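Why does residue order matter? Because the sequence determines the fold. Keep that principle in mind as you read this record.
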Amino acid sequence: MTKKKLEVSPEQMLSLYQNQRALLDSIEQQIQTAQAFLRETTMAEDALKEISESAKDKRVLFSVGAGVFIDTRLLDSKNVKAEIGGGAFKEMTIKKAMNRLDDRKEDIRKGLKKLAEREEKALASLKQMESAMAKFQQQLQQREKQVPSGVS
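Structure:
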């Protein structure tokens, strides 16, 4: 049994390359988003730790985002309200909330590992395509040199 050589036109190769590049860009964006979620989760964990070590009625600066803070008093240093989905909240202990955050961080890290593997495969595929395109370009240049001048 003989192997058939698969022929790909330059246009097809360019299209495949562009698709693979778009996939890589998408993966990189997903990695950035996951890293932002991981940072946010870590910041929440740090804030919960600080709150749990604070006394009730302690004055605290609470961030509302974009570098804006509210000066407020801590009414409860043992419990928080955590979103459970669909805009609903549930009161839970800080310890339980921190455990949920730990689980979330682990899920994010697993997702980042899978994304890194996909990114590595996409990069390897791009390098193969670049190599194939370079060989094709060399073949074209060699053919042009072999054609005598004045011959069309």
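The first helix runs from residue 10 to 52.
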